[in-house]
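Tokens in:
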């Protein structure tokens, strides 16, 4: 959103709508400032309410104008907020109780004022830092249940503050008898009914005129009732029905900056924990409000810019001795619905509050307490219902329990204790829940999941029979102590598998693991001990550098790690395990120790071998040389007489990945005889090799001159391709079974 432009934002055709919207919301912002002041300065501090209204109106003026000009929303409105004011009320009352009766109430006020000013300045600095370094999105990682409990608890604090603002009696079990005396009931009952009426009207109707109309109407009806009943304003003030009037004509005269020379800074510093809680709620509230405004108005906002703008506004407010204020979702949306489409509306609202601050007099303090307290009760009840009740339908029961725990602790012990306990419980729920998810992406064995090494059929058959001696676990996600011990139980179950002998190899692939913590390392050390006890080798593949470093720091890798092997990828790890199994039956397994033996088995008739070789040409390549490249035309197939070659795929980053490895006695490139498409990968010699090449011309001549030889070759190739398809089907079906589980 572009900065303020008078030619764009102040147009004659739109000016009337924006001015009227600004004046309308000015009345609401004025009421909001007075309500927030009454929330802080109530009970024993009620005599300082004129001062509270003074600094609240300063905030309403400065913060509203600065946010209006700097926000990404051109119709944004800001000002004091009940969430932060509830915490400032806690700080003010705590200081008053700690310092009084050692000092007079007047002597306590400089310390309370200094605490509010310092909190405002620090909040502004914090918001600017978060915005300038674009750190606002990190706050979104706070668990939703913790936020819900915090907001519900804040709603309760506002309700409690509303009661005290109307009666000057704290809402607690110890004061219930005093609250139900006739004089007290006449103070809080009208406010309670008025707050419920506000809540219902906002729930039932959504017109932008409902709330300001009810505020103005409530004030008017109250004074009409007093006039009809013959009760003078002086009597109403004595009965605690109207706010106490100020002896000064102008609100700004309440400010006495020289009194800040008498601040008890120790008391201010003692409120640091509540200040931290207030900073937390300010950042969360601004981000929630900005996101909600985006959704409701479909105007894209910049969250980091909102943090910076509100930070600058609070630093300015703190420098002149004002209180915290920030972006308001309720008044912003009402401003938008009232027809405001430029920053002029916010300017008018701020100037309206500023005019009351400069020219306003004692008449402001004839406002009905029932209206002020009822407005606070409406705000607190809205928060309480939204976060304490509606979350029952939006959260799982376990997370909703966290909301209730935080709410109850805040109501009985304090907001810092409630949030702290809530975070601990949320972490506990997360650990339990995440442990159940597990870190196993796929589980298989060597009879199904084979390496990309093309082996003679007798070796393939043997590995199919003995492959379950290789148990393969592909891991994923983040490993911590909970999931590490779940993995130990899983391996213990696998070690009990004895279809064709005990499990000899546990292959774990770490390719999809994003990290592990130090506690998980000790769990993996325990797993290593379990495998050593069963004489089972642990093959670890695709270990990232940071994971290997964490294991090294935890002394997982000991000098004598005879039971651990490490490979760069899963394919090579499985290949090594297969090789260990085949070593036991080397003579039997290597029936085709050369291409000559393979050809002899294909033809059966030994007399035809010489004739078959007449169609072949001998090819010799050295270690590292390329047999053919990706994209080369398919010019036939190869029989590998001696050596080993690998099929490599070129990756976008310039590296290569092994697709398959062929050893002596195997066939390479047979698809070229049928598909006649370019080679799909590079084939590189892993060692010096000798091969027999059957070209396309040689194959065509064989079909014409010796059809019985070509038929025998066709039968062999069809059987070979069928076996490879069978292995592919087994792997696919195994993957499907694991996914459905």
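Residues out:
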């Amino acid at each position: 959103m572009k900065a303020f432009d008078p030619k764009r934002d102040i147009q004659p055709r739109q000016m009337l709508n924006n001015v009227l919207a600004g004046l309308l919301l000015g009345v609401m912002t004025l009421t909001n400032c007075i309500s927030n002041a009454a929330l802080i300065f109530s009970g024993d501090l009620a005599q300082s309410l004129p001062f509270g209204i003074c600094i609240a109106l300063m905030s309403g003026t400065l913060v509203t104008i600065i946010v209006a000009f700097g926000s990404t929303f051109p119709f944004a409105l800001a000002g004091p907020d009940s969430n932060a004011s509830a915490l400032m009320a806690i700080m003010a009352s705590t200081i008053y109780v700690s310092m009084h009766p050692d000092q007079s109430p007047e002597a306590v006020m400089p310390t309370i004022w200094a605490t509010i000013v310092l909190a405002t300045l620090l909040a502004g600095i914090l918001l600017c830092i978060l915005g300038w370094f674009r750190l606002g999105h990190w706050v979104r990682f706070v668990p939703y249940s913790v936020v819900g409990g915090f907001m519900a608890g804040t709603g309760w604090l506002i309700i409690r503050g509303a009661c005290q603002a109307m009666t000057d009696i704290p809402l607690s079990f110890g004061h219930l008898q005093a609250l139900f005396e006739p004089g007290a009931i006449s103070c809080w009952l009208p406010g309670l009914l008025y707050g419920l009426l506000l809540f219902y009207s906002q729930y039932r109707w959504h017109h932008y005129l409902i709330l300001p109309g009810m505020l103005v109407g409530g004030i008017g009806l109250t004074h009409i009732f007093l006039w009809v009943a013959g009760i003078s304003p002086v009597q109403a003030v004595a009965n605690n029905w109207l706010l106490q009037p100020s002896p000064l004509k102008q609100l700004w005269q309440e400010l006495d900056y020289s009194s800040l020379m008498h601040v008890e800074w120790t008391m201010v510093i003692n409120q640091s924990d509540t200040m931290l809680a207030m900073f937390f709620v300010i950042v969360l509230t601004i981000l929630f409000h900005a996101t909600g405004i985006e959704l409701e108005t479909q105007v894209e906002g910049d969250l980091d810019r909102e943090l910076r703008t509100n930070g600058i506004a609070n630093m300015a407010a703190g420098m002149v001795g004002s209180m915290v204020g920030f972006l308001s979702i309720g008044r912003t949306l009402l401003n938008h619905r009232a027809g405001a489409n430029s920053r002029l509306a916010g300017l008018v609202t701020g100037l309206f509050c500023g005019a009351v601050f400069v020219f306003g007099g004692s008449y402001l303090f004839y406002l009905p307490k029932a209206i002020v307290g009822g407005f606070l009760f409406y705000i607190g009840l809205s928060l309480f219902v939204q976060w304490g009740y509606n979350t029952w339908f939006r959260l799982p029961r376990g997370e909703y329990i966290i909301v209730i725990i935080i709410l109850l602790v805040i109501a009985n012990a304090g907001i810092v204790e409630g949030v702290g306990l809530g975070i601990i419980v949320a972490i506990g729920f997360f650990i339990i829940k995440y442990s159940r998810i597990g870190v196993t992406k796929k589980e298989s064995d060597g009879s199904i999941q084979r390496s990309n090494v093309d082996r003679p059929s007798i070796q393939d058959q043997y590995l199919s029979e003995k492959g379950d001696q290789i148990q393969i676990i592909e891991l994923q996600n983040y490993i911590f102590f909970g999931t590490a011990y779940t993995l130990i139980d899983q391996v213990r179950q696998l070690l009990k598998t004895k279809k064709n002998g005990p499990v000899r190899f546990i292959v774990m692939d770490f390719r999809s693991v994003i990290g592990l913590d130090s506690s998980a390392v000790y769990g993996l050390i325990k797993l290593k001990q379990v495998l050593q006890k069963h004489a089972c080798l642990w093959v670890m593949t695709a270990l990232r550098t940071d994971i290997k470093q964490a294991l090294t720091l935890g002394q997982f890798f000991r000098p004598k790690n005879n039971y651990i092997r490490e490979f760069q990828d899963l394919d090579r790890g499985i290949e090594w395990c297969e090789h260990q199994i085949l070593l036991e039956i080397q003579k039997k397994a290597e029936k085709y120790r050369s291409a000559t033996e393979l050809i002899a088995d294909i033809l059966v008739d030994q007399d035809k071998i010489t004739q078959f070789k007449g169609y072949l040409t001998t090819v010799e390549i050295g270690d590292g040389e390329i047999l053919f490249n990706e994209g080369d035309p398919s010019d036939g197939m190869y029989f590998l007489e001696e050596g080993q070659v690998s099929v490599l795929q070129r990756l976008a980053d310039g590296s290569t990945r092994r697709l398959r490895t062929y050893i002596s006695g195997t066939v390479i490139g047979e698809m070229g005889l049928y598909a006649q498409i370019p080679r799909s990968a590079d084939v590189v010699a892993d060692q010096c090799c000798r091969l027999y090449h059957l070209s396309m011309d040689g194959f065509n001549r064989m079909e014409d001159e010796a059809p019985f030889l070509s038929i025998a070759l066709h039968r062999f190739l069809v059987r070979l391709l069928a076996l490879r398809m069978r292995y592919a089907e087994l792997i696919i079906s195994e993957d499907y079974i694991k996914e459905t589980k």
